[in-house]
Each structure stands twice: as structure tokens, then as C-alpha cells.
Amino acid sequence: MKTYRDLEVWQKSMNLVIEIYKISKGFPKEEAYGLTSQMRRCAISIPSNMAEGYGRNSTNEYLRFLRIATGSLYELQTQMEISMNLYYLNRDEFDKLYELSREIERMLSSLIRKLSGK
Question: How many CA atoms lie within 13 A of 85 on its CB side?
């Protein structure tokens, strides 16, 4: 029986969480309760909302949680850009994370379209 764990978008989101944790370890200590914490919470929210929505056993609820996951992804993309502008991330680090986030964005969008019949 398939579950949310079998979804490639969920798996990629889990990888993004790991990458965000690794990269944010190098952020300044004064950001521990600021940008570091916020980015980690947003990253965690993406696969977590996919899982929670899947577990609701309702297409409408699932769609709602997938949209929440998408919102968290957009927040994270914004925070990644802020991190680069503050020189906490270099361009290569940003590009790698941003490309992964864009791939997840496209996959979420496709899943939402498929489930909503559009």
C-alpha cells in the first residue's frame, strides 16, 4: 500500500530539510532564534504538511495541506534569499538550495492540479 512516503515530492522535501539544517549550522550564533530557526521551521513544515494532509483521508483536506506546504516553501525561498543577501549563504549554496526548492514547487503544483482535477 502506497503512502505519502512514496511520493517523490515528499522525499525531495525531506532532503531539503536536511540541506537547510546543514547549511544553517554555519549561520551566525545571533541568528539562532531568528533566521536559522525560521528557515528550519519552514523547511520542516513542507513535508510535515504533506504527511498531515495525506492522513486526513479527504481530497479537499489534502489539497488544503498541500497549499499550506507550498506557502511554507515560498517563505523558505524568501528566507534563503535574505540569507544570501546577508552573506550567510554564498551564491553556489543558494543556487543549489533554490533549484531543489523550485523542483519541489513544480511537483507540488502538479500534484495540486492533478488532485483538484484542473
Answer: 7
Is the pLDDT at 68 greater than 90? The verdict is yes
Whether residue 118 is predicted with pLDDT greater than 70 in this model: the reply is: no
Alpha-carbon distance 30 to 9, whole Å?
A: 33
Q: pLDDT of 3-41, one tens digit each?
A: 999 999 999 999 999 999 999 999 999 999 999 999 999
Q: In angstroms, rounded to a whole number, what is the distance separating the alpha carbons of residues 28 and 67?
A: 32
In this structure, what is the dihedral angle of CA atoms 11, 12, 15, 16, given to the nearest 10 degrees?
-140
Q: Which three cell numbers stand for residue 56?
A: 486526513
DSSP string, 52-82: HHHTT--HHHHHHHHHHHHHHHHHHHHHHHH
Enter the C-alpha cell of residue 9.
Answer: 515530492
Contacting residues for 73 by C-beta, under 8 A, at least 6 apart: 42, 46, 101, 104, 105, 108
The superfamily in CATH containing domain 4-116 is 23S rRNA-intervening sequence (1.20.1440.60)
- What pLDDT, on the 0 to 100 scale, is given for residue 54? 96
